[in-house]
Structure formats: structure tokens, C-alpha cells
Write the C-alpha cells for this entry.
Amino acid sequence: MDATPPPTTDPAGPGLTFRETMQGWAAVGAESFAAGRDAGQAAGTPLSFTLTITVDDLDRLTADAATPCCLSGEVHAAALSPEPLHVVDGTFRLMVPDPTRTETMHMRYEMQLQAGDGTTYAFDGYKVLRGGCWATDPVACSTTFRNWDHPVRRQIFSGFRCARDAAPGEG
């Protein structure tokens, strides 16, 4: 009898699932993200999505914030389809460093989308995160923390924190 346990795909640590909705503007054939936003706004072609993001291993994500996470959901892009586009394959990365700017990270959204008629599209987008630190006092942490200041003044107490309760025996 083989006593070796079967391989598992269970994550090593706790997981997390959350839903996010974003909206903006988009245009087909734009040369840059900003040009697509501006042309889409001028043309009145909105883009929105509601995604479910699944973090299989929160400990791994905490150790490496660029860890790929699964995402699913749908995208509404009037410039591409009158019907919702369904995410058939998607990856979310919480914090990918921007190699061109210091203290700047990107939340990355990469998706393969499919329209009702079978047409497929590739979606690649990001949200910019600037400044911030993992050293924020837990008392000041919330899902949204805003502190207005001049853009040239970087604050050390703004940021994003992933945390979890200690498992029994960890402390």
C-alpha cells in the first residue's frame, strides 16, 4: 500500500475573494491608455467591468504582491459589442512595480474576453498606485484612506495592507 498522500492543489495559506467594479472610457485603435480614455470620452463610448478576484493564497500574495490571482466577470464596452463581454481567462496582479517611476505600482488587469458572437478580445489595463508604505499603523488602516497634500510631498503613512488573523499556535 502506498502511504504517499495524493498531490493537492489546495493553497498553503488562507484565501480571499472580492468584487470590484470600475468604469471609464475607451476607444478602439488608440495609441495609448490616455488617448483611448480621451477619445472614448469625446465619442461617448464608456467601458465598465465588474470582476470577482480570487486570491488563492493570501500568505503568498503578502510575500509577493505581484503574485497572479484569478479573475472572472464581465466587461461592458459599447465600442466593441452591444452585449456584455465575458472574461474567459483573466489574471489580476495587486502591485506590479512601474520601472519608469519610483514609489509607483500598478494594479494589473489582463483578460481574454469573448462576445456573444464568439469574437475574442485581449484586455490589458492597470490602475496606478503612488507613494504608500506597508508600515501604516493598523489603527489608521481602512479600505479607503485619503490625506490631501501637494503631489510633491510623499506621505509615509498612506498605502494598502493585507493582513490576517494569526492561526492557532502562531502567536
Q: What stands out?
A: The longest strand covers residues 85-97. DSSP finds two helices and six strands in the chain. Residues 1-8, 134-147, 155-164 have pLDDT under 50 and may be disordered.
